Amino acid sequence: MEQYFYFGEATVAATGEAACFPLSNFLGIRPASSSSITLYYKATDGTGDADSVTLLHTGTSTKVAMGELVKVLSTKTNKPITVVADRLGTANAVDVTGIITVVTVTKS
């Protein structure tokens, strides 16, 4: 069973900026700044450009935050979809690492 990872911005209801990527399309992860990380996936539109998700983290170093995300991405589960981060409203926010404060989805 293919595993998928969901990321949603706080304004997903208005902007539609959310994405669900299969693990098989994961290309890599890198620091974007001292407080953010960018994950790259094969483009969903078939172009050579990668889709990306930038996650702003708080309360820890980028190295630790990257390690937490790698744990999530490498954990086998019986559920086909893992909600990594969904910032839809403060009361409804989901964050599997406990450190993600902002999600930005960029599709090619």
Number of helices: 2
Low-pLDDT segments, ≥5 res: none
Q: How far do the termini sit from each other?
A: 26 Å
Largest sheet: 4 strands, mixed
- Broad shape: globular
Structure description:
This protein has 108 residues and is an alpha+beta fold. The chain is 16% helix and 43% strand. A hairpin with a 2-residue loop joins strand 3 and strand 4. The termini are far apart.
Outline:
With about 110 residues, the protein is an alpha+beta fold. It has two helices and eight strands; from the N terminus they run βαββββαβββ. The protein has one domain (about 5-105).
Descriptive tags:
alpha+beta; 108 residues; single chain
Give a topology summary.
Elements: E1 4-8, H1 12-15, E2 18-22, E3 26-33, E4 36-41, E5 51-57, H2 62-74, E6 81-86, E7 94-95, E8 100-106
